[in-house]
Amino acid sequence: MSSNVVYAIVKAGGRQEKVSVGDVVVVDRLNGDPGDSIELEPIMLVDGEKVTTGADDLAKVTVTAEIVRAEKGPKISIMKFKNKTGYRRRQGYRSSRTRLKVTGIK
After folding, report:
1. Fewer CB within 10 Å: C terminus or N terminus of the chain?
2. Cβ atoms of 100 and 67 closer than 8 Å
3. DSSP structure class, residue 29
4. Number of other residues whose CB lies within 10 A of the CB of residue 8
5. Is position 30 within any domain?
6. Number of folded domains in the chain?
7. How high does pLDDT run on average in the chain?
8. Which residues lie in coiled coils (predicted)?
């Protein structure tokens, strides 16, 4: 592994994602229009051999991303069935998601 690798672990949409500059990630729905810039909360920063995890040091770090588009996740099929009663219920669900492109880690 080269010594100039820079990436961050950020909290985005209820989950943690490993991102570096230029990455495209899909997270839970965020408010904003395509082209808007948002700031993600860093949890850890790796800059070559240096690993930053302290809250005071991470307060100085900013991870910016641009909203590419809003989209929907895969369809989840929900089926309920009770034997011998004729009860059946079928339902589908698709979660709302946002595609982000990471533009900077400073």
Report:
1. N
2. yes
3. -
4. 24
5. yes
6. 1
7. 94
8. none
Please identify which residue in the block is written with the tokens 């302290």: 54
Any domain includes 34: yes
User: Residue 39 has which token pair?
Assistant: 């700031």
pLDDT digits (tens, 9 = 90+) for 15-43: 999 999 999 999 999 999 999 999 999 99
- Span 94-106, average pLDDT: 96
Per the domain annotation, does 83 fall within a domain?
A: no
Which residue range forms the structural domain that includes residue 57?
6-70+97-105
Give the H/E segment covering residue 57.
Answer: helix 55-58
Using CA atoms, how far residue 57 sits from 44, 51, 53, 86, 88, in Å, is 10, 11, 7, 61, 55
SS3 content of the chain, % helix, strand, coil (to 5): 5, 60, 35
Distances from the Cα of 33 to the Cαs of 68, 72, 75, in angstroms?
A: 8, 15, 24
12 close to 98: Cβ distance less than 8 angstroms: no
